[in-house]
Specification:
Among the domains are: 107 residues, Alpha Horseshoe (Serine Threonine Protein Phosphatase 5, Tetratricopeptide repeat), CATH 1.25.40.10; 72 residues, Methane Monooxygenase Hydroxylase, Chain G, domain 1 (Up-down Bundle), CATH 1.20.58; 200 residues, Rossmann fold. It has 29 helices and nine strands. The longest helix is centred in the C-terminal third of the chain and has 22 residues. 45% of the residues are buried. Bound molecules: S-adenosylmethionine (SAM).
């Protein structure tokens, strides 16, 4: 560890910071300066290559990243990014080899975090020693703290920052940096104290109220968070990250107007900030302004071709507009990025993706792709369903009931009423895939006790607000039916077979927990050919004869089947079937 390294770290981080903020030319300038003196500095070579990639100079990108690999052949994401640069040059075979190398390297490397605890004590001692040494040899201890922080040696960084603050307690920047370290360690309250002290020490330090707002937002103190984001913006009106995070907070409050104002502001300040375009796209989608959403998604993935999450939702929207070919290409790109996401944490390319929270799961993309290409997996992957409905939960009812005129629950209840005695009352019902509770609402008046089951926590949260369920289980339906110790006399599955696919496991599990003469009422989307298949919408359709045969083979007696128009899709009614079975044990 010496001065040169600290200086290099400092400059590299500046380059990385500019890169993150979308200022590619400044980042590239710093990289060039570093490389003039240190042409073998692999991190800088790699970063410089990634910048070239973003600027679409794929050849230069590949050359630099290749050099980075020569100097550090163990870094999985160097290989991954080289793969991307080659793929962009249509050198698919070579690219594939590098992706494979990346995955092989990743799986052979131990998880750094796992060894952290054992190292911590030793590093704490080293920190103290290094600190003393740096003071004695006249080095700036700020660099030492900065270095520890950058390397993720947080206890050591905390130690050194505290030492510096003993000597100069009014140093706002160090208070702020210490706050960042504590925040990374999950010590939010202590972090917020540091940021407040930093604000008192220097009222013009925009980072302090910004960081404080981030912590408060994590602590759920939303009004306070808004206040401090605004405070940071007042100090630096062009602080686009503060505008962006303020937008996220408004979005979490479902205030899309204010959120979109913030994202627009971000785009005005930094038109290259892909996340703001992605967020705008999501809002346009919620407002059903599809054309504008497509433009924003397109912009987000152009600016950041590794933005898996944006690729994924872009693909989904493109698919819903019927452009299947483009959707397949986009979703396979998202799949590739999803694979890359497994390659390494904290890498340059992966940063944009990981921080957005939602990871593109390989299984989900595979499912989407099979929906597009007409293969039929036996069920939809639970991650896909959970994420989809978590995202959808806020606008589910408005969209389904108002826009798509969804009426399956009401039709199912009417179908039951037409054959069950007037005074019929069930003792213990279960709403399988209860969603926001529309199906529960339709049946609550004829059931004494109702349990809801759903995979999606956000849908469950919405159904809780209805106050009709005695118990709500955030759980997979088949898992619930396997593990429950209860017997039920009413089973409801409204618009759920469309995600479950193969109905036989469901029938088998229901049979095991059904009271004698229990009723099972379900809806399906209809098809005439085969048993069941996945439609290009990503939902399953079932042949009514198949459902009836499968059910009767397991002892379900069909009381009534009705054809029904369940909901609209692109202005057309979706044809479905409603079945009422009696389960005779
Ligand atoms: C289209 S919604 C229907 C919701 C409700 N039954 C209604 O009629 O309004 C489908 C629901 O089923 C849930 N779901 C799908 N597959 C599931 C599974 N395997 N386990 C639990 N819930 C599932 C989804 O999370 C979603 O909330």
């Amino acid at each position: 560890m010496n001065d040169v390294d600290f200086e290099l770290d400092e400059r590299f981080l500046k380059a990385f910071d500019s890169f993150r903020k979308g200022d590619l030319s400044h980042a590239s300038e710093i990289c060039e300066q570093i490389l003039t003196n240190r042409p073998d500095c692999y991190n800088t070579l790699h970063l410089s290559g990634v910048i070239d990639y973003r600027l679409e100079d794929f050849e230069e990108a590949a050359l630099k990243i290749f050099k980075a690999i020569q100097n550090d052949p163990q870094n999985a994401y160097f290989f991954y990014n080289l793969g991307l640069a080659l793929k962009a040059q249509k050198k698919d075979e070579e690219a594939f080899n590098f992706f494979q190398n990346a995955l092989a390297l990743k799986s052979s490397q131990p998880d750094k975090k796992k060894n952290r605890k054992d190292q911590t004590k030793r590093e704490g001692r080293l920190a103290a020693k290094a600190y003393r040494h740096s003071i004695e040899s006249g080095q700036d201890p700020n660099y030492l703290a900065f270095h520890f922080h950058k390397e993720g040696q947080l206890e050591e960084a905390e130690y050194v920052y505290n030492q510096i603050l003993i000597a100069s307690p009014q140093n706002a920047r160090i208070q702020n940096d210490l706050g960042n370290v504590l925040q990374e360690m999950g010590r939010m309250e202590e972090a917020s104290v540091c940021f407040r002290k930093a604000m008192v020490a220097n009222a013009n330090l925009d980072q302090a109220p910004y960081n404080l707002a981030n912590v408060l937002s994590e602590l759920g103190q939303i009004d306070e968070a808004i206040k401090f984001y605004r405070c940071a913006i007042k100090i630096s009106p062009h602080f686009f990250e503060a505008h962006f995070n303020l937008g996220l907070v408004f979005e979490s409050l479902e205030n899309l107007d204010l959120a979109s104002d913030c994202y627009r502001q971000v785009i005005e300040i930094n038109p290259n900030f892909s996340k703001a375009h992605y967020k705008m796209a999501g809002i346009f989608q919620q407002w059903e302004r599809v054309d504008e959403a497509l433009v924003e998604y397109q912009r987000a993935v152009e600016l950041d071709p590794n933005y898996g999450e944006a690729q994924y939702y872009f693909a989904d929207l493109v698919k819903s507009q019927g452009d299947l070919e483009k959707a397949v290409t986009l979703s396979s790109q998202a799949f590739l990025i999803g694979e890359g996401n497994n390659v390494s944490e904290g890498g340059v390319v992966l940063e944009n993706f990981d921080k957005n929270g939602l990871k593109v799961e390989a299984s989900k993309i595979e499912f989407l792709t099979s929906a597009l290409t007409g293969k039929t997996p036996s069920t939809a992957p639970s991650d896909y369903v959970r994420n989809f409905f978590d995202e959808f939960s806020r606008r589910f009812e408005r969209h389904l009931v108002e826009n798509l005129q969804y009426k399956a629950p009401r039709l199912m209840r009417d179908t039951c009423d037409s054959i069950l005695p007037n005074d019929c009352k069930f003792k213990n019902g279960v709403d399988l895939g209860c969603g926001t509770g529309l199906s529960g609402e339709a049946f609550i008046s004829i059931v004494e006790r109702l349990t809801g089951v759903d995979l999606s926590p956000n849908m469950i949260e919405k159904s809780k607000e209805k106050g009709i369920y005695d118990v709500l289980n955030e759980c997979d339906i088949l898992m619930f039916l396997t593990e429950t110790k209860e017997a039920f006399d009413l089973f409801i599955a409204a618009d759920v077979l469309i995600y479950l696919g193969d109905p036989i496991p469901l029938f088998e599990k229901i049979k095991k927990v059904a009271a004698n003469e229990a009723i099972f009422v379900l809806s399906t989307e209809s098809c005439d050919k085969g048993d069941y298949h996945i439609r290009q919408t990503g939902r399953y359709a079932h042949n009514k004869s198949f459902i009836e045969e499968a059910a009767s083979g397991l002892g379900f007696e069909l009381l009534l089947r009705k054809s029904a128009e369940l909901r609209k899709e692109k202005e057309q009614w979706v044809d479905g079937d409603i079945f009422v079975f009696k389960i005779v044990n």
